[in-house]
Amino acid sequence: MSSMSSVAGLSKYIKTLPKTRFSIIGITILSFLIGSAVYLLDATPNAGILQDLIYGGFYGIVVFGITSIMSGALNQQVISGLHGINLKIKHSMFLSGLSMTILGIIITLGCAASWIVHSDLFLNSMLFGCVIIYGFNTLVFWATSKVRFTIAAITGFIQPILILAMYTLITFLFIDTSFMGPVILQITIKALIAAIIFVLAIYAFITVIASPFQKNLGIGVLDLLSLFIAHMNEGSNSLEGLFETMGEAIDTIVTFVSFKTNEGIKALFISPSVHPGPLGDLGGSNMPTILANKFDYFTMVAHGPSTHDFNPIAVSEIDKIEYNVKKGLEKIEYSQDASKFIRYNCDKANIGVQFFNEGMVILSTFAPEAADDIEFGVGLTMMAQSRSKCNVKDSIIVDCHNSFEPESGEVLPGNAEVFQLIDVIDKIDADQNKASIKVGCHADSMPTLDKQEGVGESGVKTMVVEVDSQRTAYVLFDANNMEIGFRQEIMDAVSDLEIDEIEVMTTDTHTVNTLSRGYNPIGIAKRAEIIEYVILSITEAINDLEKVEVGTGTEKITNLKTFGPKNSTELISTISSVVAVSKIIAPVLLITALFIVFIWIFFGVL
To answer: What is the pTM of this model?
Structure first.
């Protein structure tokens, strides 16, 4: 999960780029300052300071500012015209402004160095800076716009050529009339060779890091990056097509509890062994809301035992879960029999158990200790053991997903936590007295909170179950886990309400992972406000209590297209290895190339 969330955290930089007009204003101001600095340091040392500031400022606007604004517009038109993606006008203008700033810093440093070495380094500094921004622009276009390297490399020339052309024109017309053809030819050859050296280093670097993705997963790393940006920037789901290339079909299960009155189904509690990921609105990330909305009655979609291996590759795969739940509902047999809610624990493993008709619900948590997803195989073991131990037809396992810290690990086969879960299930008393049941429900979208606070589209849903005068509140947040300790804070805050037991769960939706935090569990911010929503939701659910019949079901889902048990791990390990290798290769290739370019421009002889 850490790799997925770290990538998701980058989305804040895509979302927060300034509007086009602000970039243009910034380019104008910065170009004025760059020109003033050049004149003060180098161009006209005998003029007055005020003249240097004014003349230099206008020189900077003409040479650097106007050309950068032009390139911002042209770059966007060229990339879009050649079927590139992501490069909106605000992105292109910001890129031009950033490139101009890099160039300005290099030129200013070169002018300052001129005073130290008593030699005019302005022109060479400009050439060196233009080569750097050429490589930078080429890399950005190639990596983010889903265009070929040749298109990116040609488009990357636009800003440096405009700046050098404007500099040549202004110099020839107003400053130095001896600036003739042979000098221009020398500058052109020097800059061209330097650009080729630098861009080949970039090409070599990208080729090296792209190889593991193509070999291990059959996908292009730049396609992955470009489509990821398109999703974060525009909501495009084109990335799902790439997932389909690397995904595989699996078989899994969905379990559920149905509560009905004489008028029909009142509430549905679903626990699919399908993971709501990977992030944003891709695949099954918003599955808890999408699946719940497919039913015409109150529906809670809890987090079943599953990891990122079981992320659906497309939103359409959720239809298969819907189909199997509706198929199972047609077969359910109902009764009024239910038991009280009882807790059991063994070491770190804690479960809450309640029997419904011929089935049972097991709410599993490691709180107050931290934990992440329970793997599907572990969940199957828990189901098989509890069915055998308690002689029930259906066992609905829920990973409450309610105690998180950044280093939380998944519960995988071989972990000590697995045996703790097995041992705690052995403690369940299957001989529970059964009584009639009442259920009350309430859903609140929590409109004053949003993804920034870790709250997904469905907000909070609460179901209060009353059996033999005991009231148990099932509180489900549409969130990706919960800040460690917040569960207990909620439980303490509602202790005065007319309930006897409560468990707080999260859906593990990954829609909330598209903002500034890669990890974004509920409870990081606005805890008091969240608790007020819980209190209101429980109160309203109590007011909604009425007698119901209950039934349980288990259905197998076949041919669900997911990341797959191997590919999810392969993707994360490939990303990790590429990052590790890049830390070595990138500095070696790029610094070596820059050193060669520097020597060629400042000391090379044509």
So the answer is: 0.79
